[in-house]
Specification:
The chain is an all-alpha fold. Helix 1 crosses helix 3. The radius of gyration is 19 Å and the shape is globular.
């Protein structure tokens, strides 16, 4: 059972890498004016579904995402990396749980695509924020969600600065050039991920302040906003490159990260 969980967890990192690289590709094509498809993970899944053998591949992806969810729950409860119960340790374990919830939700969406079930609105975040804002004290729950996103962003930024994940990789046998390249990929990738999460957190705060759910932004909304800035195409290409590097680092994690179950 332990070995099975480890193998499935590694494949889940491969799927994460594929999804982030897909989002980056859509973002780059948008920046170059080659496509108007929304650069998000759901769009990647829907595009893949339309391809030959797409349904079969999506089943494999859904299983891998489900495995990732199980693995994150194991990390949260069992604490195999001994983060402990200090505030910092509990924070890291909480981000594991957030990752599990995020990709568990994406696994559900993938299964719905496979079985032809309506997956729901892409603006689901706006819908639940709208429901919260109509409740007494609901804006504080939205603020809490924004604080969680900003905290998650800070954790990702810490990973970029301290290079903790890079240092844990089993890459000693690689040449210095490749180790340096992996270090760079990880740093840029996690900085980009941190910026995206911080943007989502900021707009959750703004939605609560203005009491307007339309301020809630998903990753495709943020990328579209970047594209509207002066020299937006260049900024969007830069952001797409960072997302692509984050995806590459997930592939590296799948190969070289020392997974532990207990």
């Amino acid at each position: 059972m332990k070995k099975t969980v480890q193998v499935m967890a590694r494949w889940s990192y491969v799927v994460k890498g594929f999804l982030f690289c897909g989002v980056a590709t859509f973002a780059a094509r948008m920046a170059l004016g080659l496509s108007r498809k929304e650069p998000n993970q759901r769009q990647v899944l829907e595009t893949l579904f339309s391809q030959p053998l797409g349904r079969f591949v999506l089943v494999l992806i859904a299983l891998a995402l489900s495995a990732h969810t199980v693995w994150r729950v194991v990390e949260t409860i069992e604490d195999p990396y001994q983060k402990g119960k200090s505030p910092g340790g509990l924070l890291h374990r909480f981000t594991y749980l957030l990752s599990g919830i995020t990709y568990g939700s994406l696994a559900v969406t993938t299964f719905k695509l496979v079985f032809g079930i309506q997956a729901g609105s892409e603006n689901s975040k706006q819908l639940w924020v709208a429901q919260l804002l109509h409740r007494d004290g609901g804006e504080w729950l939205v603020v809490t969600a924004g604080a969680i996103m900003l905290t998650w962003a800070l954790v990702q930024l810490k990973k970029a600065i301290t290079q903790g994940l890079y240092k844990s990789l089993r890459i000693d046998e690689l040449a210095y050039f490749w180790r340096a390249l992996i270090r760079l990929i990880g740093a840029v990738g996690f900085i980009t991920q941190s910026a995206i999460l911080a943007g989502m957190g900021y707009y959750l705060f703004r939605a609560a302040w203005m009491k307007n759910p339309r301020y809630v932004k998903s990753i495709d909304d943020l990328l579209e906003l970047v594209g509207r800035l002066p020299n937006g195409s260049n900024w969007l290409l830069l952001l797409a490159g960072g997302i692509f590097l984050f995806g590459l680092f997930m592939f590296i994690m799948a190969r070289y990260f020392p997974l532990k179950v207990a």
